[in-house]
Amino acid sequence: MKSNIKSNFSNGRKLTLLASVMCISLIGIACTDKEVVASDVDESTVDTVLVVDEAPEIIEVIEVDTSITDEANDKSKVEVAPAKDADKVSDDAGKEFLVTDIKVIDGDTFTASRENGKKITVRMAGLDAPEIGQDLAEESAEQLRGCLASGNALITVQATNSIDDKGRTLAKVESAELNCNQQQIETGMAWMYDKHDEDLASEDYQLYVFANRDALDSQRGLWENVEAERPWAYRERLGK
Q: Contact 13/36 with Cβ under 8 angstroms?
């Protein structure tokens, strides 16, 4: 249809066509058998589209810039948001078990042995303690050793995101009827870590919020210096 129309548009002449044929063939709508007039067009037009002016019922042929649609169809130029990492969940997600042979690494991490003899590294959920080399890092680790002094602990593994990107088990840690996660925050030996917020049990989240606020208000431990570099900022700065 396009080639027939173009061949009849020459020297500024006008072409009279049936609207029923033009509308159905070129713009896909139903219309009555009324005569319409196509306005002058340039024969050099490569891609054309017919536009209907409802008032005088004039069909005007205009040039279409196809570069926009061509670029949109080029998938190599379409930006796609990166996929979100899938939750890392172990077979132990949501489970409780005892551990012994505890060796504290820092104020939020320790190694231990399960009852079946398997060695694991536990990263305490909901808090972030100073990294080795930061102020109060050793004091924080010593505080955790005190909480785990009985030599065993009950581990409650998170139900979601139960393993971090380093393969450590994320969990609540209880020993001698103490919630060691809460104690580390309450004594100012660790900051509450909002990266874990969505994965914490609601009751634990509330406990840690109050503990964090109490430590801040009392300026205990790390809160004596409110400008102290947070461990997550420290790791980012060092590329860890």
A: no
Please say whether the beta carbons of 177 and 139 come within 8 A.
no
Q: Where are the domains of the chain?
A: 2-65, 96-238
8 A C-beta contact, residue 118 and residue 97:
no
Q: What is the pLDDT of residues 96-151, one digit of tens each?
A: 999 999 999 999 999 999 999 999 999 999 999 999 999 999 999 999 999 999 99
Length of the chain: 240
**Amino acid identity at 98:** L
User: Which residues are within 8 A (CB) of 226 and not within 5 positions of it... i.e. 6 or more apart?
Assistant: 216
Q: Is the pTM of this model over 0.85?
A: no
Tokens representing residue 113 in the block: 């042995």
Angle made by CA atoms 231, 234, 235, in degrees to the nearest 5: 90
HEC string for 115-171 = CCCCEEEEEECCEECCCCCCCCHHHHHHHHHHHCCCCEEEEEECCCCCECCCCCEEE
Alpha-carbon distance of 203 to 209, in angstroms, equals 10
CATH number at 96-238: 2.40.50.90
pLDDT at 180: 99
> How far apart (Å, rounded) are the C-alpha atoms in residues 1 and 22?
9
Name residues of the chain where pLDDT drops below 50. Answer: 1-39, 41, 43-62, 64, 67-87
Residue 38 · residue 61 · CB < 8 Å: yes
